[in-house]
Amino acid sequence: MATKRFKELKNLSKDELATKIRETEAQLFQNKMKRVTGQLTDVASIWRARKDIARMKMISAEKAATKPAGGK
């Protein structure tokens, strides 16, 4: 399943990826707050969000490192 998710993320544009990172970071923050207050039932969602953010940041860095042909 992780490879399918990775392929989906890899097809996003830089702007879409940045938006997705911000959304996932906000979701991670909300889940952390819910965990502290005892409202979170799926504790694994924190782990999954952290891994998704790491994947997206890696893809974003790869896209930033690749320069278009003809660019200086």
What do these coordinates show?
The chain is mainly alpha-helical. The protein has a domain at 15-63. The protein is 76% helix and 0% strand. It contains three helices and no strands. It has helices at 2-10, 14-37, 44-65. Helix 2 (14-37) packs antiparallel against helix 3 (44-65). The chain is elongated, with a radius of gyration of 15 Å.
Q: Structural class, please?
A: mainly alpha
Mean pLDDT: 89
Major sheet: none
Measured by DSSP, the beta-strand proportion falls in under 5%
The counted number of beta strands is 0
User: How do the helices and strands follow one another from N- to C-terminus?
Assistant: HHH
**Rounded radius of gyration (Å):** 15 Å
> What is the rounded distance between the termini?
38 Å
The helical percent reads over 70%
Low-confidence stretches: none
Brief synopsis:
The chain is an all-alpha fold and 72 residues long. Helices cover 76% and strands 0% of the residues. It has a domain of 49 residues.
Comma- or semicolon-separated keywords:
mainly alpha; 72 residues; 76% helix; single chain
Task: Describe the SSE topology.
Layout: H1 2-10, H2 14-37, H3 44-65
